[in-house]
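Next comes this protein:
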Amino acid sequence: MAGDAILQQVFQVLAILVFSPLLQGFIVTLEARIERGRGPALIQPYRDLFKLFHKEQLVPQSASLVFWLAPIVAFTAMLTVPLLIPVLTNYPLPLSDMGDILGGGLILTLGGFGILLAGLDSGHPYGGLGSSREVMLAILAEPTLIMVFIGITLLARSMLPFVVNHLLVAQPSVFWSPAHLLLVAAFLILLTVE
């Protein structure tokens, strides 16, 4: 059974890695439709990634080890969250009890912080400008995101995501409660900011 659970955990990480660009394409297309535009194709992020991986690598002369390690830290942080939080299953996987909702949010923030440091380390004024913009968005969005997480955990009386999921499945009245609907609305607004 342990081998099967580990296989499911690896499959979850690979599924997130493969289907994340498709989700991004869906979000961009949906935003364009809301603005009464056509928008790009759903698979446009895959095309962009293919084009990006075939571009020449440009590294500033003033870049230090931080510039090289930041993308690795960010990518690792993004792939660590599906190890800790069950996304495709409604039951805990082997590593699910090692992280809770706030821990997952903090790991994602670590990835964003790595990219922020790379922008500052580049030594280019546009890198600093983009990093300061990212800090401003984080200052505005992160406290709200933490409050959404705390609100959901207070409703479920647990910080483990699969327990929250089981509560919503077992008691559908919680799903339609005003507090939960307001938390979902706040989270959807935060998605547009991020």
About this structure: The mean pLDDT is 86. The radius of gyration is 19 Å. The helical segments are 2-34, 44-53, 65-84, 101-121, 125-156, 161-170, 172-175, 178-193. The longest helix spans residues 2-34.
